[in-house]
Sequence to fold (518 residues):
Amino acid sequence: MFSRRFIILLLLGLVLLAVVPTVLHAQTAITDETCPALVQKALEEVGNNCDALDRNNACYGFNRVDATFAQDEEDNFFSTPSDRAVLNTLAAIQTAPLDSNLDLWGIATMNVQANVPGSLPGQAVVFMLLGDVEVENAVPPEEAFTPAEPINVTSLVNANLRSGPGTNWNIVGSVTTNTVLPADGLSPDGTWVRVLLNDAPGWISRDLVQPEVQGTLSALPTITGTQRTPMQAFYFRTGITGIECVESPPSVLVVQGPNNVRVDINANGADITIGSTIAITTVDGRMQLFVLSGSATVNGIVVPAGFMIEAPLSEDGQSLAGPWTGSRPMTASELAMFLPLENIPENLLHYPIVLPSLRDIASILAAIQRQGATVVQTGDSTNPDDPESTQEAPVDADGDGVPDEPVNSDEDGLPEEPVDSDGDGIPDEPVDSDGGIIINAGQYNTVGGNCGLSGGTEVSNVASDGSGFNWGRLSFSRIDTNLYTNSGGLLIVALSPDLIRVGGSSPGACVMDWARAG
Fold:
């Protein structure tokens, strides 16, 4: 698998070399197979060692993993691959950076209950520690919330299910009379019951259901939204060591929630709601959050798939020291860095990790622009508590990771007048009639990616309506908002008027970012 992917990268890199006259060189092939072999071996063994991990448990995946516990344990407890431990006793867990010379790469997995309903059998939030990662449990054992075993209730009438305990929450489903539902908790005032329908949680009025056994509803725990299960709140840090070859991911903590369930976690003091899969790191005193699929919400900022967001950390790394930056598209190099995560064994996850394609990123950018916003770059604040913030976060009401379409306030069906959203006296960048970005002509140089290319080429003959342009000797035409292709099947995404992403359409293809130099 690993050698095939590298061959794809190299071949597509050579294609780009052939069409871009001023590119200087391509990445040379890796001749040392020690690192790829270790990565493949480690992932395969973790798939076997940690298969069928119970909820609220940790698994020692691959050598080496260190752990401390809230109580004394036997000398050989949690000391070899495949060993398991209950999270309520785990104080901290640390995995070792990749070192192919020592045949060492620490990997551990945890299944965390978080706010996943107890009525969702076998499902939990998957944490994967890969490489130089340390996670400390921030939920004291005596304060840890233990979800109840679900009981069955039957609907007495046709009824709506809501996203929260009250009629002021939106409707997420409905049931007919005599529908049997598993229930696992009550609202603080005891008038609503949390149930599960089609593997997703919802709330139904207590007056509209009848338990199978009289009196059992009152025994369910109160769900306030502030309780924390073990490891639902944690402190973490990651190192920068361990990337020895293109087949190995960086040192990173991967967090994946079950399908159709919004999950709340607290990392280093930051409240985060995830709708799919994220990767989080700490680098140079900053916490970075990358959305690999679905979406995440941080301080009201929706971060869709293929985007990232970051914030400064305190000196001890256990709390935020400033606001989150606005989300921005991940660079091609960042996407390439996480590509090896697609090789994590599927039995350890709820669903495979599949990074967003060029078409996906173009669609998300188009949705953001149609909403009337621009993509926020690193350094621009969208913290709602920051008085200097002028950029509104994209709205994602349905939680699908794609910002909602804008509402045309004057209902005339015509585009709104140009605006100056940042108040600097200069109108925002123009968009064409399709709502997309119009690329500026000029010299473009490579600024990162997974092909190992460097150098530059020219963008010219840009159509006034943004429908096409030349990239070097190749002619590209628009096939969707912000997305262009040529006769050879290459794709270009317009990320901004001065930044484009060029690559193939197949998984693992060569992808590079090019920025205008003048």
About this structure: The two ends are 41 Å apart (CA to CA).
